[in-house]
């Protein structure tokens, strides 16, 4: 059974909040399993505790980190076309809803949208972030759902008004997934939608390695701080004994796999414990923390087509190659 609360949108509160009680990942189990692998790795979703989220917000404002400002500029340019494609009374859903800057821009571009629903695995986070929109949009049905967006959901079970459903997935988050997982996520999102609905998704494109490496290893050191905060979180929450001074941060462009790879690199041989488990690392051994895949327009459209979408339009920011795709849903097989 789902927990649902309803309130008056005109009063600046959410129209509804639904907790689908997604299974929470086990930080302890995932870290222990990752550190036991031959190539040590920690899932990047664990970057985003409160401190990590604050550091990431700092990253989005850095001169080297082009993604946010480029996507926002492209959204400004394509607003009339998005308005025409979505049509009136659209119902917008944002998996992984966070900062409200981009969704505000989209809502303002649309023709009398009927509703906006933000989704995230953290119920407290998504409820708070989505509620910030309500006072400025009293005529819009605004709701929040606690849900793991990598999993299926029956949107017909939500109290949504009639209208074309548009899933909005900005920020090239799709690039953080291994390609097989990106395909599976696209298939999941396609499964949410009906014939005639659409997915609007931001996708970063290949560009010179020097530009990419600067974006993910900035001169100010914010991205390094983002990674070192993961060590602090492990030490704090899992009784870890990792010595942060024994690591350095490295990001590099791997052209063969078309992705930026991010690592914490051991500066010396070391031993440490996490949750009572003992680990060793040799000098120059690495902990893989994140990837950011970069696509071509055609390559991503092919991936989307394999997931069951029909690519309709792709807009590209030419000065700093970045794309936003409008993918439509035909009849399901």
TrEMBL record:
Molecular-function GO term, any one: L-histidine N(alpha)-methyltransferase activity
Enzyme superclass (EC): transferase
Record flagged with keyword Transferase: yes
Gene3D superfamilies assigned: Vaccinia Virus protein VP39 (3.40.50.150)
GO BP of this protein: methylation
EC number: 2.1.1.44
Domain spans labelled Histidine-specific methyltransferase SAM-dependent: 27-328
Pfam families: Methyltransf_33 (PF10017)
Keywords for this protein: Methyltransferase, Transferase
NCBIfam families linked to this entry: egtD_ergothio
Designated name of the protein: L-histidine N(Alpha)-methyltransferase
Organism this protein belongs to: Marinicauda algicola
UniProt gene name: egtD
């Amino acid at each position: 059974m789902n927990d649902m609360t309803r309130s008056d949108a005109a009063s600046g509160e959410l129209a509804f909040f639904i907790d689908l009680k997604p299974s929470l990942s086990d930080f302890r189990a995932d870290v222990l399993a990752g550190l036991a692998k031959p190539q040590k790795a920690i899932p990047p979703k664990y970057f985003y505790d409160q401190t990590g989220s604050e550091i990431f917000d700092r990253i989005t404002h850095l001169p080297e980190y082009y993604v946010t400002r480029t996507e926002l500029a492209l959204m400004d340019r394509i607003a009339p076309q998005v308005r025409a494609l979505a049509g009136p009374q659209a119902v917008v859903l944002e998996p992984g809803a966070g900062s409200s800057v981009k969704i505000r821009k989209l809502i303002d571009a649309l023709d009398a949208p009927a509703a906006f629903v933000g989704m995230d695995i953290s119920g407290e986070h998504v409820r708070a972030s989505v509620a910030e929109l309500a006072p400025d949009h009293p005529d819009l049905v605004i709701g929040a759902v606690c849900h793991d967006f990598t999993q299926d959901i029956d949107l017909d079970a939500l109290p949504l008004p009639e209208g074309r459903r548009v899933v909005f997935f900005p920020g090239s988050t799709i690039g953080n997934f291994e390609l097989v997982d990106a395909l599976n996520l696209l298939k999941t999102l396609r499964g949410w939608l009906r014939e005639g609905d659409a997915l609007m998704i931001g996708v970063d494109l290949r560009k010179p390695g020097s530009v990419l490496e600067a974006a993910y290893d900035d001169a100010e050191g914010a991205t390094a701080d983002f990674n070192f905060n993961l060590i602090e979180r492990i030490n704090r929450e899992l009784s870890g004994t990792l010595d942060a001074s024994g690591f350095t941060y490295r990001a590099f462009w791997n052209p063969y796999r078309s992705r930026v790879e991010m690592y914490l690199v051991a500066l010396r041989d070391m031993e440490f414990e996490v949750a009572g488990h003992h680990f060793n690392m040799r000098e120059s051994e690495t902990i893989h923390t994140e990837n950011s895949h970069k696509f071509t327009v055609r390559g991503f459209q092919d991936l989307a087509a394999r997931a069951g979408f029909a690519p309709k339009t792709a807009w590209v920011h030419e000065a700093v190659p970045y794309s936003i795709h409008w993918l439509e849903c035909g009849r399901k097989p």
